[in-house]
Amino acid sequence: VMRAWVLLSAVLWYLTGVGWQRSSLLSKKGFIYGKPGHPVKIYVKLHQNSPVLICMDFVRSRKETVDPTYLWVGPNEKTLTGNNRMNITTTGKLIVIDFMEALSGLYTCTLSYKTVKAETQEETVVKKRYDFMIFAYREPDYSYQMAVRFTTKSCAGRYNDLLFRVLKKILDNLISDLSCHVIEPSYKCHFVKIPEHGLVHELFIAFQVNPFAPGWRSACNASADCEDITNHNILQARDRIEEFFRSQAYIFYHHFNETLPAMHFVDHSFQVVRLDSCRPGFGKNEGLHSNCASCCVVCSPGTFSPDVDVTCQTCVSVHIYGAKSCPTPNRNQHCED
Question: Which InterPro entries does the record associate with it (predicted)?
């Protein structure tokens, strides 16, 4: 009996020409399983491929499945077939290639398989449905709001305005090669009472550092994900400006000793806050997209975003993902901001 079993195994291995191991079914990184009765939310970065969607729940995948068939239905309830965008395997796995705003929506897979009673060979067909809500997202565009303070002799006189203009020019030159620039600069002069000292005059200067200086698109090198490049540049710009003011404090402390010039940078006054904005057609919604709260997620049907705000506004006449405008409604519809 033993020899017969070994012989049969050898023949089977020869006929198939390959050894097959159940361990190949183990979960791999980047695989997302369905959950019966619960839509699975998935966020795919614009122009990237989606993770591998499995037309099966994890528990089912650990069991034997007889005669499985898989039917994928995409947004607009269209049956999906394998093409250059939809990669569907014979084992029911789906990968969406080069994800775009318009590909967002509900993806449904129906798994059909049989249960077979060993004694009677009686077959029963079982069907399970799995829903995946897929949203395109992109990284927010960063800009930085900054504030510094400088001492001054008086709140009157032209030197304050001259310092302000020179400082803006220095900062612009410092970051110009990064396609970044200073916008919305402003200053106010205040009297400040310093503990254990008298009154001093200080300029409170505020400005924003923005990654969209004229000609910024040339830095993208035809890259589809230009925010990756602009965000990298703005981070460098932030670091350079921070280092510039740190060096101002160092110079005054180490080279002027007790005789500081009347107009000088106030140590520890540099403050920076990151501001996020989303491209048109995208917005942030922490309530709806808690798993991607910092992302700019594509605006869902019923909403739109016309500018670089961070929220999608309501518009009932929008029926697509990623709307950038609110179309003129029909007589029976209305549009809200």
Answer: Sp38-bd, ZPBP1/2_C, ZPBP1/2_N
What would the pLDDT profile of 142-163 be if each residue is shown by its tens digit? Answer: 999 999 999 888 888 788 999 8
Distances 50 to 80, 98, 214, 215, 323 between C-alpha atoms, Å: 15, 8, 34, 32, 21
133 phi, psi to nearest 5 deg:
-95, 115
- The separation between CA 337 and the C-alpha centre of its own chain, rounded to angstroms, equals 24
State the average pLDDT for the chain: 84
Domain 141-275, second-level architecture? 2-Layer Sandwich (3.30)
- What residue ranges of the chain are covered by domains with CATH 3.30.70? 141-275
* Cβ contact 260:152 at 8 Å: no
Which residues are CB-contacts of 214 (< 8 A; sequence separation ≥ 6)? 181
Q: Is the separation of the CB atoms in 242 and 183 below 8 Å?
A: no
pLDDT digits (tens, 9 = 90+) for 216-232: 888 777 666 788 889 99
Alpha-carbon distance of 145 to 185, in angstroms, equals 10
Residue 134 tokens read as 């897929």
Q: What is the C-alpha separation between 280 and 330, in angstroms, rounded?
A: 24
Average pLDDT over residues 296-302: 94
Alpha carbon separation from 227 to 130, 140, 206 (Å, rounded): 34, 7, 25
Query: Residue 22's pLDDT is what?
Result: 38
Q: How confident is the model at residue 9 (pLDDT cuts 50, 70, 90)?
A: low
CATH topology for 27-138 is Immunoglobulin-like (2.60.40)
Q: Which helix (H) or strand (E) holds 166?
A: helix 159-175
CA dist 49 and 223 (Å) reads 16
Task: Assign domain 278-337 to its CATH architecture.
Answer: Ribbon (2.10)
Q: Please give the pLDDT value at position 255.
A: 54
